[in-house]
Amino acid sequence: MSAPSSLLATAIHAARSAAAVAHDAFDRPHAIHSKGFRDIVTDADFAAQDAAVAVIRSQFPDAQILGEEDLTPGGEADIVWVIDPIDGTTNYARRFPVYCVSIGVSQAGRPIAGAVYAPLLDHLFTAERGRGAELNSSPIRASDVRVVSDAIVGLDWCQAPAQRRRTLTILDHLATECRTVRAIGSAALGLCYLAAGWIDLFYNLALKPWDGAAGQVIVEEAGGLITTPEGGAWNYDMPSAFASNGHLHFAFDEYRVEE
Questions:
Q1: Is the pLDDT of residue 39 over 70?
Q2: Nearest Cα residue to 111 out of 126, 100, 97
C-alpha cells in the first residue's frame, strides 16, 4: 500500500497513542467499574480514549466521534470516528494478554478506514477502502481454506444469557465439524485474525459499533466476507455478524440457528 491518507494516518497515530496509555497501565492495579451485567470498564479505558480523542482532534478539530466510553457525535456528520479504547477489557482487567485499540473511520455510514493495534505483540492491522489490508505494513489476505474440517473457528461470548445460548447452539454444530475453536475475547482482533488468515470463520451475536468499525473494512479489504446471520449485507452498526474467508461462508448457512 502506498502512503496512508490523512484519515488512516491519524487513525494509526490515535490507536498507538491510546495503546501506549493502556500498555503503561497494564501491570498496575485497575479501578474496575460495572457498566451492566458482565460489562466492565477500567480507569485505563477512559484514559486511553482521551488519548485517542486528543490525537484525532489535533488533526481534525471538528471531528465527530463515537467512543465506547460515553462519547457520542454532537450532530450530523459525513465522517464519524469510531473508537474502542480497549477492546477486550475483561482480558485487560485480568491481565490476560489479548486486547487492542480499534479506531474506525466511517463516511456516510460505511467504514472507509481502520486501524487496530495490539500493543503486547506490536500488531498493527490497517486498511483503507479500495487499497487493501495490511499487518505492520505488509499485505494480508483471508485464508484459502475451503473445507470446514480444516477450519479454525473464532467466536466471542455475549453478555445476555439468551444470546449465549444461541452462540452455544451454533458452536455445537460447528465444533463437531471444524478443526478447532478459539474464543478470543476481542471482537476487533477476531476480525483482524480472520483478515490475516489465522482463523477462517468468526461470529459474534452482540457487537457494538466500536467493536466492528475498523474490523469491517480490514476484513473486506483482505478478501473476507461479513454478513448478518440471515445472509444479508452487514454493517458495523448491526449487532450480529457472521464472518468468513469468503470460501467457507456456506458453513454458516448449513449450521445457522434461526432467531
A1: no
A2: 126
Q: Which CATH superfamily is domain 6-139 in?
A: Fructose-1,6-Bisphosphatase, subunit A, domain 1 (3.30.540.10)
pLDDT at 2 > cutoff 80: no
Does the pTM exceed 0.90?
yes
Mean pLDDT, to the nearest integer, of 139-164? 92
Place of cell 488519548: 51
Query: For residues 122 and 82, is the Cβ–Cβ distance under 8 A?
Result: no
Task: Tell me what pLDDT residue 258 has.
Answer: 54
Place of cell 466476507: 225
Secondary structure (DSSP) of the chain? --SPPHHHHHHHHHHHHHHHHHHHTTTS---EEEEETTEEEEHHHHHHHHHHHHHHHHH-TT-EEEETTTB--SS--SEEEEEEEEE-HHHHHTT-S--EEEEEEEETTEEEEEEEEETTTTEEEEEETTS-EEETTEE--------GGGPEEEE---SSHHHHHHHHHHHHHHHTTSSEEEE-S-HHHHHHHHHTTS-SEEEESS--HHHHHHHHHHHHHTT-EEE-TTS-B--TTSS-EEEE-SSSTHHHHHH----
CATH number assigned to the domain covering 148-255: 3.40.190.80
Residue extents of the structural domains in the chain = 6-139, 148-255
pLDDT in tens, 209-232: 999 999 999 999 999 999 999 899
pLDDT at res. 42? 82
